[in-house]
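[job 0417] fold request received: Flagellin N-methylase
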Amino acid sequence: MSEENPCLTCGACCAYFRVSFYWGESNEAPGGIVPAELTEQVHQHLLCMKGTNNHPPRCVALQGEVGKKVSCSIYEHRPTPCREFNVYELDGSPNMRCFKLRGLTPPATIDL
Ligand code: SF4
Ligand code: SF4
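[job 0417] inference complete; emitting structure tokens
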């Protein structure tokens, strides 16, 4: 497992989607961890990361240059959609939206 995490030189998903989530994830709610000042209201029960509802979107917590070198300034406190969006799904299959954003063809699944 020596391959570097491709997310560190990507960030495409942080500058493409509206990153929205249940308001209870905000640190203004009991048990919430996402910094409220970096969120905005979408509707009564839904927040999004500031900047991701813009056109073009870009999360305010994203640092660096997309496609070169990036990091998430609230990595430990990022909301659920960010935690669930990875290069590979939990079952090991490629996350097609991630590969598409990067202009890549996912590796074929070959069963032995
Ligand atoms: S999950 Fe995919 S699209 Fe998002 S930063 Fe990582 S490599 Fe890029
Ligand atoms: S909170 Fe972090 S991981 Fe989530 S969209 Fe913003 S920069 Fe990306």
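[job 0417] notes: Residues 96-101 form the longest helix (6 residues). The pocket of iron/sulfur cluster (ligand 2) is lined by residues 14, 19, 49, 59, 61-62, 72, 74, 78, 82 (CB under 6 Å).
[job 0417] exit 0
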